[in-house]
Structure formats: structure tokens, C-alpha cells
Hints:
By secondary structure, this protein is an alpha+beta fold. Among the domains are: 2-111; 126-412, CATH 3.40.50.200; 840-929, Muramoyl-pentapeptide Carboxypeptidase, domain 1; 935-1035, Carboxypeptidase-like, regulatory domain (Immunoglobulin-like, Sandwich), CATH 2.60.40.1120; 1038-1232, no CATH class. It has 22 helices and 64 strands. The strands form 17 sheets. Strands 5, 6, 7, 8, 11, 12, 13 and 14 form an 8-stranded mixed β-sheet that branches. Strands 19, 20, 21, 22 and 23 form a 5-stranded antiparallel β-sheet that branches. A 4-stranded antiparallel β-sheet has the order 2-3-1-4, with helices on one face. The chain is globular and about 95 Å long. The N and C termini lie far apart (95 Å).
Amino acid sequence: MTWINLHLVDGIPRPTTVDAVETELCALSTDFAAGWAAVQAQHPTATLNSLFAGPGGLSAEAITDLADAARMSGSEPPDLLRWLTIECPDDLIEELLPVLQQLRLVDWVEPRPVSVPASRDGVVSWGTNPKAVGSPAIYGSPFGVDTLHAWRVDGGTGLGVTVADVERGWFLGHEDLLTAKITKYSVFSEASPGTHGTCVAGVLVGADNGVGIVGICPDAELLLVTPIRADGVNNLAVAVMVATKAVGAGGVVLIEQADPIKPPPENGPHVLVEVERAVHEAISKATQLGVTIIEPAGNGSIDLDHPPKLTPLPGWGFSPLDLTLPTKKDSGAIVVGAGTPTVIPAAWRPHDSTTRGSRVDCFAHGAGIPAPTTPGSSDFQEFDGTSAASAVVAGVVASMQGMALAAGQGPLHPNEVRNLLRDHRLGTPLAPGFTGIGSSMPDLRKIARARGWARALPVAAVPVAANAALLVYLDDEDHVVRRHYTSFTGWGSPLRVIDRGYLLPAQPTAVSTATPGRLLHQALASGPGGLHRAWWDSNLGEEPFTLIPASRDFAPGTTVAAVDAGATDLVLVGIDAKARLAMALPAGPAYPGSSFTIGGPALFRMTTGPVAVSVAAGHVEAFAVADHGTLVWCHGDAPFEDPWQPPVVEPTLTSFVPGARLAALSVDGQVLVAAVGVQGWLHAVQVDPSQGGGPTAFSTPVVIDTAAAIAAQGPLALARLTSTDSDLVLAFGVDTDGAVQVSDRPAAGGDWSPMRRIPSPVKASPLGGVVAITMPERGVMVFAVGVDGKVLSAQSLTPGHWDGFAPLPEGLSAPPIPPDPSPPPTPGSPLISAAFKGEPILEAIAANTDRISRTRNTPSSAVGKIQHALLVWDPGALPVHGEDQKYGDETAAAVRRFKEIALSVAPTQVIDDVGPATVLQLDKIQAASEGLLGKQTTLRFFTEYGEVAGGLAFSVTTAEAIKLLTTDAAGRASVHLTAPGRVELDTGSALNAVGNLLGRPWPPPAGFPDAPVLTPAANSSVMVQPGDVLDIVVATRVNLTAQLVSPLTGTLRVDGQGVAISETAGSVTLALQATGGRAATVLVDPLAPAMALPDLPPLVGWTPIGTYTVRPGDTEEGLAELFVGDPAGYAEISDHPPVPGEQLTLPVTPGWLRLATHSVSAPDPVPWFTVTPDRIVAAMLASGDPESVVDVTGVLDRPPAPGIDAGTDLSARAEALVVLLQGAPVGPDTEVEESA
């Protein structure tokens, strides 16, 4: 027997009964009565009952009371009494479903599937969790610890890691904790559910369920332990040991407790618990056992380096606490302080309440972390203090351990974990002048890079022609990269897209459209505020990313399907922030500012995104897996406005896994869909839209191969391969072993072949999934992401024959980095460090005449030196209990790990011994520690306005090497140099780091008169010496003033980027900023010839006078000033910030008709002259010394007047201006005077 659920349309009275509701509905609508008669003709005993108020549920009164309580919080709850259910025999389900779907008053029908847990380990769809979107911790530096990055690294969700929370009081009935992996392991005397513990549990392992937040390590297992023991007595030391035993080596214990330093009744302020000696001992023992202990510094505002005198306990004469103990004796725990942002978002300072001192290892958010709480006035609260910070750091550590386990490296030792968290280079630093809570807040992106844990983000690819393709993906900095392929040239170099905003780690979308004489490529990527789009047009050039206003409702971090259905711009189908299936038209006139739902009331909280195809012009078919595992199909017709055809559920109720993104392929008017079932098998489902919008359009899902276990974390793929003797469709998936598997069947239908592996030199990451495209002349090309984070591609021209996966060629964007330079060795010895040089065994190993294994388990000074070098490389490389100067199991394990990480030796190729390559590399590390590998050079980069340039990529080139570096959030970077080096900028990175300066005052404020100046658009460079501490200014903007020979008639505007223009009496001033090489044209909008300004008729109120196309660089203030006359009046034009390319309808008042008429209603504009901002900025700043720049003159002859044709001598002379400026530099604000 199967149950079918139905939802009644809004706007009709809800039923007043809970049983046999059909009687009431038949009385309400004769159409419903006719439909119900058709139902009873097939199922005579059918009856409709309330779903939630039926047997075993709540009473109707209780449901009403719950709804009233929800309304008191300011939101309108769903009406549960509109949900009905009907019991149906299994043999009638196929016939009865279409009849029920035709019932009037019913807008949604779904069979109730058997509850099957969806296997989603390792997949996070955070964008549908409203509180998670607002949590600063999940975002990248400088705002958070960048869990968004870690969630896309294998193991980064904490999978396989156990965390224990030691405190008291949790409310595990919270909706964000119900499905989390939480166990009350050792809980005693829990008097009442606690807010504090509930917050901590949510920050750690809050479920990805679309309700509130997502924990930092949602796939970790959380064990709960109370400091109150079975005898009812508080004993924190024992609790720590109980937790330690429970989590085991590689586990994490979070002690969410603090000790008051004053006796009752004050009970404060609070400090870290290891000031209690027994607890200190327990923590020390735990770290020795390989368990990482996290403890808050406390919220007492105490300086541990200068602790206050403690008040003796009554009757004792002394305090049992020792505030100097943490600094005198290292427990091995990670002590966490609380930080808070300064007025500058990129800078952090200690929270006012945090305990501080040199013992504090790192910090995290001390305020503003959304977390679940015990039900009361709200289900969520902002979690503050060192407790919140410690919970964040514990989640970070669990994520780190998960990534280490997934990489096959085994768990990190607690000392190793702490060293990584203490390293300021791997975090977001404190603002200058602040200390006491560690040097930085951990950054999981930087830590993952340092450890070699690669992120796997799915790519997007589309065919461009019969033998060409476009590939789009996000690099490790979340910048979109595109690469082009043709069968003649192979893969082109990676090309960065100009990102205008912060993009989010999700699979991008690519679309390529060819029309006669024009080729248009588009890329879409998720970002804050909606979907961002960039395009490359063969006729118009390149446009950077801009926000699509209609996509604002889409959930961040999800993937959107984009279809060119031949009837509009694009049809976008995605998941909105409320987890509904939704669509949007980027330029739809009916819905210019929002999307609308198309999937009915079903929720899609656990899918990474839908898929969509077009089987014919003007038609779109969209598919997604709902939370309960059923496949949902939606059909839309041009003009794709609401409503679409009601959604249809796959009728056999096969359960699919939402985490694996579907694949869809149009095949001869039908749609083939691939999905992963809960058993891990790949299924194929065929849908025939010509059969109408009902269940009969679905074929029965077919299991492709029960012998192949397909991973459910990344996208699947379908493609068509046609040859002279066959026409096949191919299905792809990444299996749980990291191999890409493929199966095929005839396109016309038939049996699927057994799945077979496509050869690959490296494993594919399940998180990266697989993408496939068809190029008619080049067969099928398939893409995956290796576990090393590199994009792999394979190709097949004929069925069953694959050339095997290979990494994409690197291209020309990043020159190879030679090994670090070393001082020349002494003649006769390749060793350079004082410790290694002259050691007989090490000299013999370096000469390849000996091995360290012959000294195994016997004392040797050579082994001791190897151990010392390993500890220099990684202080956690060796356990504290190992034997000095003996090559035993511990040292051998450290050497094996060193070979895998430092020498990039595959684990299967590592030999358990020390040979020449290992000794020579350890010798370099030892030499560096002895100061023999040059001096550290520190560089700081600033803009012309004195602001730090964080995230700036640059290179330092010496005679021996090229070093590629990136500045931190404070604009700093350090490098060891042995010889003078030349500093050069990465142009694209520099422009992103500097930002838009055109709206800033000119000249910039003085502040760096002696600092050298670098211009990204020029081949300029700065020389640095080893040991230099140097400030460098990154200059991208100048001003150019041109004197006019004759008066200007009309108004000026700019077509292009990087130029702002202003006009004064007798001159024109251009503010120029490098933008990436594109030219901009200065245009004159002449007066309308027939307009007589003195005789203008009076106007009343606002009068629309035309439209205006927003240009890049336009601001709200500028548009309001120009077209409204009121800097605050932009709201009269639009309700959202200006978006380039958007059409604005412009209203004016009488006093401003002239300006508006000049800019909008004038005759066709006349090009005056063309400038290339990059070249002029480069030329004017090439000398680096504005005072030494000489004047250069160029002729700006008579400004255009109405009737002058474009392309006359005026434009040619204007182009000559650029040439002159290239030849002889001029300085900022140099006036270009008239000369012949």
C-alpha cells in the first residue's frame, strides 16, 4: 500500500474536518466533485484525510496554536492543514496519479516514498541554510576561516573525525541537531538543556538541512561528555580523559569550560582551565596520546603574562589555581582567544573580554556567530566570547584532520596541528599594534595549500564548433578561468576573467551561442547577491562579471542551469534561498528583478543544483532531486513566464541521492536523465515531453550496472557519440575508488553496456565529478578533477576507445619555478650545511655509496642530524617519545612522509631508507636554518591612497630563479634571497587588489614620497636586495588635462572602462585607470539642432524623457546628479545599484531638462578621440618619479560639432596623442597644451 500526499491551492477555505475531507471539497467546487468521481471510479474506497492532523499526528487545534506562535515572530508559517493524504493500493498507483493531478483545488501531488536516508557524506549545499549564509566564519579571509574552501576538499567536512565536547547541557531536539552525528557518550546529571552546549554543537556539526546553520565540520562525529561524573561531582580532569579515550588518536577534544579566579560570590573573571593542575596533567597526557585539545583562553580580560594576585579561598589561605602554569609548563593544548573586527573589515583586534598572553595560540570570532539555542523567544542566537572562538577552531581542526585522512597521510599530531594554527602565514593576522591572542585566525584555504590538500571543484564545458570547445572553471582563488580548445591548436593558455566581486566556490555554468557572423560565450558563477555573468563576444569584445538582477533569489553556492532555448536571452533554472526550484530570465521584462518558483512546494535543500535542456526552440525541461529522493520534472514554454506546467514526480518513486548532480541530454525529442540511486548505482531515466505533463512521460528507471559503485558527491555526465557505423549515448560517473566509469547504449534505445574505467594516471576526486561534451568532428571529450586538484581530460573518437585521462597543459600563464638557489658546495662535497658537511655517513649517502638503513636501531650521529633537519622542516614530524640518534620506526615513518610531501614521491614508490635525494634536500633545509640560504626580504604593497594591497600576486626574479608570491591581508610578503631580485606585478591580480580608484580624489594624499612605484600595465620593475624591508606603491591611476583650442558644444561621455571625464572652461580632464588593455572612446553628445533652450515650456513633476544604458563605472551618485539633479535622488530612477548594460528610464524636473536632453535625446554621438588607459597610465608613471616627467603636447583640435562624421582627422589626431604619450612619459595631472 502506498500513500499519496496532496496540497490544496491557496485562496480557498481550508478544510474544517480532518477525515473524509473530500465531502467538504465537493461541496465547495463542482469541478472538484467531477474529478473526485473519476478518482472513485478507479478506487471506490478512496478517501482524503488530513496529513498532519490524522492518526498519530497533532490535533487541528495544536497545529493552529503552533501557527499562531510562529506568527508572533513576524513570519507567516505554512498552513499544514492544507496537506491531505490518500491511501492507494500499489497496483493502482500508476493509473490514479494522473487523475489526482487533474483535480481542481489541488496544486501538488506526490507519492510518499519509503524513508531512506540520503547518503550525502562529504557534500554541503549551504546556500539554502539561511543562518549559514550570514555566518562570517564560513567565508574566506579576512572575514572567516574559509570553510567554503575546505568543504570542497576531500575530507574537509570532517568525515571520519571524532570530536568530544566537554561541558554540560545540550538541547539535541533542535532542528539543526536532530540528524547530526551526536552521541551522549558520557553524560551525567544534565539538569536542563543548555544554551551553551547547543550553540557549540551547532557550530561544530550543525546539519546541512536547509533550516538554519551548517556546522564547520558537519560530517564529524560529536561525542558529549559532562564534567559532572557518575557520582554527581564535578571532575573536569577525569572528563578530559574519558573524552580522550573515546576520540582516540587523531581525535579532537573541545573543553568548553573556564575557571573563575575568584571564589564565590564573585566567581570571575575566567581563565583557561589548565591553570588547574590536574586538568593540566590530563591535557598533557591527551596530547601525548595524539589527541588535539582545544580550550578557550577565557572571558576574563586577564593578561596571562602579567597575572593578577589571586584571592585565597576561605579557610585555605591560598588559591588552588596557578595562573603562571600555562606559561611555565606547556600542556600541548591549543589555547584560543577571541577576536573582533576593527572598523576596517580586513583587520582584527582582541575582543575586549578575552584573556590574552603569549600562551594563546590563535584566535577566531569572539562575536556574531549564529548558532542554535534552546527553544525560547528564538531558535537561534549570536554566540560570543572565547567559547564561540574555540568552537570555531575545534571545527577547523576537525576539518584539517579529515583532509589529512582523505589524503592518506594519517592524522596530524597535536604538535603539528598547533604549529599550523600558530603560523601567521596560514591565517588572517591581527591589525598592526595588537597582540596577545596569537598572531592570526586560521585560514583553511592557506592551510590546505601548505599541506598539499587540493580542492576539487567541478568544471563547466561546452562545444563551440565541430572541433572546438570552451572550458570554464574557478581557480584556487575563486577567480573564473577560461580555456579554449581547437583540434588545430590544442589547449590555449588559461585566461583570467575580470571578477568584479567575490565569487563563491561552486561549479560554474558555461554557454556558447553561434549566430551568423557572431560567436558569444557566457560564463555564470555564484556570488553574494546572486548570479554573476561574464561574456566574450566575437564582435563586441569582452565584458567582465556583472550581477544578473533577476538571480538575486538564487541560493548562494549552488549551480544554476542555463539554457539557450532560442526564444530569449537565457533561461536560468536554480534553487532559491528557500530551497524551491526556481527560474529567472536575465532580461525578462515581466520579471526584471526576481525569480519565481516552478517546482511547487517540494524542497530541494540537499541538491547542488538542477539540470535543464531544450528539446526544441521555445521549450525547456528542468530536473532536480527533491529532499525525499524523488526525481521532479518541470516543463516551461516561451516566453517562460509564470506559470510553468505543474511539476511531475517520477512515478515509480525510485530513491535518488540529491548530492550527485543529475545529467540530462536531449536525444531526438526526448530527454535522457542520469542519477545515482541510494544503493550507489547509476540509473538512467527517459522522459518524453510529447506525452504531456504527466507520469506517463517517464520510462521506468534502469540500473546501468550493479557492479559499479558511483560516488554521490559530484556531477554526472551524458554525451552522444556518432560514428559511421554507430550512434550511441554515453553515461559517466566517478566511482568510489576515484575512477571515471563509462557505459553506452544505442541512442534509439536498448541495453546499457557494463561500465568500464577510463585509464588515468591519477585518481579523480568524487567532489569534482565528471563533465562531458560532444564535438561532431572530435567525438566526446570528458573532464574530471584529479585528487591533486588539476583538471583532467580524455577523448574518444570511436566507441569503446579512449585515449586516457591526462592533465591539461599548463599554458603560458605561470612560468615554471626553478628550485631554490643554494650556495655552491665545497669542492668534493655536495653538502652545504655545517651540520651535514663532514659527517661521513651523510657524505657517503650524498655520493650514493651508502644508505642510512645499515645503522637501523643503533645510535648514530648521522641519524641525529637527520632527525634535527626533519624537525626543522616540521616540528611535529617526530613523536616526543621517539629515540634520539636511532633510525627506528618513528624516524622511518617521518622520512617516508618527508619524501611524499617535500620530494613529491608517490606513496607506492617510497623506499624505507635515506638516499641521496633525501639527504640533499634535508641538507638545504638545515642550511636555511643556519642562515646559509640568503636573507629574508620583506615587501609591503600599498595603493596610491595608502591602503594595503592584499591578495596581490607578483614575482621576484633573480639570476637563478623566479619566485611567485602573494601578499597577505596586510599587503605583506617575504622571500629568502641570495642575490638582487626584480619585482614585477601580475597585472590582473594587481587590478583586483587595488580596486576602482576613479571615484577617488586626485592627487592622492602624500605619504610615500620615497617609495618606488610599480604600474601593472607597464614593464616597470623594482630592484630589491637580500634583507631589504621595502614599501612599494602600486599605481594604476593618473589624471590628464587637455586644453581646448575652441569651445566645446555638447556634453561628454565615455564608452568603455577605466576612464572618468570632467569638463571645465577651456579644458577636459581625464581620470585614467588601467583595466586590462581595452580602449575607451570619448564621445560628444551634441545639442539637438532644433532645440531652443530659452523657450522651453514649463514641466510639472517628473517627466520620463528617454532611456539610458548604464556603463561600467557609473555610480548612483553620478547618475542622480546628472539626470535628476539630486545626489540623493537615484531612488527615483531605480530600486537597486546600477548594473552595466541595464536600461534606465530617466525622469527630470524643469531645471534639469537641458542636461538630460544633451545626454539622452541628442542626435547620434560623435567620437572625438580614443584612449587606452593602460598604455597612458604606464607611460606617465614609467619613470617612477613624477617630478622628473617632461610635458608632452598633443593636438586636440576643434571639438566635434553636430554634423562632423566619425573617423575624420579629429579621431586620427586623438590617436596620435596616445603614441606621443608612449614615447615620452608625463606625470600625473600634467597639462597637455596646444601645439602645432
